[in-house]
Design a protein that fits this description.
It is built from six helices and no strands. By secondary structure, it is mostly helical. The longest helix is centred in the N-terminal third of the chain and has 46 residues. It is elongated and about 115 Å long. The chain starts with a helix and ends with a helix.
């Protein structure tokens, strides 16, 4: 029986060794896959790709540029309203501006919020993406364009975009009018 128990002990030792090797191999495999995933996520962030909790640099730029055009357009509309009110009432321009300021701020928040909603992003995501992409020149330029638009300077390409939007709006009106005539 001593031969048998020695064989059993040897088999147990070999089994324990094999189990230890298997556990070690699993640990190395899991650790390696985690390391590769972490490296890939870091590289994606450097390239500006969208991660599960972030916003890509390209999408951020699109939202910022659209926001700049919309902000400038709202400022232009407000300027016209201030001028019209000044002409109609004879009130000083400063008084007309003060009266329309509150509505302007509310309208600006609504416009920027609707653009974020259109793109499916939150203000927090935009802020985080701006911080994460501070070294991307195109992002910095888009942020500058938005700031300048909010200060009354037309963003690059604004007149072309405005004309395209006006043409599209006119097409939509024609389509709606044409459909309503057929029904009636």
């Amino acid at each position: 029986m001593s031969d048998h128990s020695a064989a059993q002990k040897a088999a147990l030792a070999v089994g324990a060794f094999a189990a230890a090797v298997a556990v070690g191999a699993i640990y190395v495999t899991v650790h390696e896959s985690r390391r590769k995933a972490k490296k890939a996520k870091k590289e994606a962030a450097q390239k500006g790709e969208r991660s599960s909790d972030g916003l890509s640099a390209e999408q951020l730029i699109a939202v910022l540029k659209e926001s700049a055009c919309a902000a400038y357009q709202l400022i232009e509309q407000t300027r016209k309203m201030v001028h019209e009110k000044h002409v109609q009432t004879g009130q000083p321009l400063e008084q007309c501006v003060d009266e329309l300021q509150k509505n302007f701020e509310s309208a600006m928040e609504t416009v920027i919020g609707s653009i974020r909603a259109k793109h499916g992003v939150s203000e927090q995501q935009m802020t985080a993406s701006m911080v994460a992409n501070t070294n991307v020149a195109e992002v910095a330029q888009a942020v500058t364009e938005l700031r300048e638009a909010m200060n009354g300077k037309a963003p690059p390409g604004y007149t072309q975009r405005a004309e395209e939007q006006a043409a599209e709006a006119a097409k939509q009106r024609v389509r709606r009018n044409g459909k309503s005539r057929r029904k009636g």
